[in-house]
Amino acid sequence: MKQTKLQLICDAGLPLAGGGTLREELLLYNIPPVSLLVLSGEFAALTGKELGPDSDISILSGGQKVILMCLCALLSPARKIRFVNLWHSLDPHNRARAKALIEKLGNGREISFSEGGDDSA
Amino acid sequence: MILPKGDYQVWEDFSLALPADLDFGPGIHYLSGANGSGKSSFITRLLLPRLLQDPDIYSVYLEQQMHLQVTAVKAYASVIKPHRKINSEADTVDFLLQNLLRAWLERERPCYVVMDESLYAERVLAFLNGNLPSFSLVYSAHTLLLPATRTLSFKPLSPTRSEIYARPS
User: What pTM does this model have?
Assistant: First the structure.
């Protein structure tokens, strides 16, 4: 299958791919270990929380999980990303930060968004 | 239902301060605050345990991230009679509300519905307004989705502590 046909779907209703440690989450997103510093730096700037490779990400708040999902998607090698209900879970400050992150890290990719419950299609 | 004022250690590294009693009487109660300010912790660690302990009320809780709840309701709905197919979050919400109404019609009791950043807030309110004469609806969101009787503001004092203030909307 050509990579251009693949799409990473990130649903804020199910923000963690693994739900164990950050290291496991990075593996699932196929994020190289070298990107951990970028991810943890951006996450700390957004949330004030420090994350290491062995941090238990299941104890993050709902909004923090969504921010982490967003960062993982943007640091992954996916060329097409679809965010589902991304804005709903973020407060106004984090919405603005997430938009800035998407502009900064999403360069050259096809990024789309959808919002609403599963009865709104 | 009244939550007494006090200092609540809701997690090992996070506490919530209530400078005054919080009354969750009939009406719409809006929980407002930034990501990580403790809204979900308040719901799951303080509010829900008290609601679930009270045998004289009915309560429905819609989780922020509903995937596990959908699976649980799907399993439950498949073994009760009449069987009901649950295919989506919207089906889950409808099932739980119908369940609440059925119980209330059998025996009237105060009804509480708690929603944590639900995508179905308007759907829930329309159902409650159409079927129940009185209810307490508690919802958290990042914008005022429903006309609230009262707003509870979550103000972070530090990464490990927030304070909750109530004011009429």
Answer: 0.89
